[in-house]
Amino acid sequence: MIVLGIVVIVLAALVAIGIVWRRARWPCPAWLVPLLENPYVDAVAGSSTLLERAGVGPGMSVLDAGCGPGRVTLPLSARVGPQGRVVALDLQADMIEKVRARLESSGITNVELVHAGLGEGRLPAQAFDVALLVTVLGEIAKPLPALREIFQALRPGGVLSITEVLPDPHYQPVSRVRALAAELGFEEVQMFPGWVSYTINLRKPAGRS
Predict the structure, then answer these.
(1) What is the dihedral of CA 120, 204, 126, 150, to 10 degrees?
(2) Which residue segment(s) compose the domain that 149 sits in?
């Protein structure tokens, strides 16, 4: 009975932490990187799968928004090749430094690091063919300004590829993503559904600046 009571207390504590974490919209800290990089995440939202879904190819200019430790950033740099460009943006200095160390150890030179939050106006206008937002949207306190900045940073016809994965405490249902996208003028072009994850591709209309 004592063991059962301890288990119940621990589970209740985890649920409470998850609720607080979700409401506070805290980003995943650097010391919890194993939650972002593990066999489960690779199975349901592996980097190669996400890049295929987003249509990333050689020579493209791509934004990795909320890059974290660089799980997607490094494969992106290889996918776009020496003629391409990757901008990896993150709010947390610790995450940026983790990416920087990985880039330097791998000799990668086609990635630019930006320490900033989305919505702060640090992204150039009409600079990207593709933007990736992987398990990040729910961590953003003001999603509309953040997505508006991405919209403006995409070239006409550019694609924003958003991926959400359970059991992320900040998981955003697809209905929420579609509502935000419609408000900003994005067009939905493709949906990749799944039991515990999904990817939705949103396009900036060709006639929009």
Answers:
(1) 20
(2) 28-203
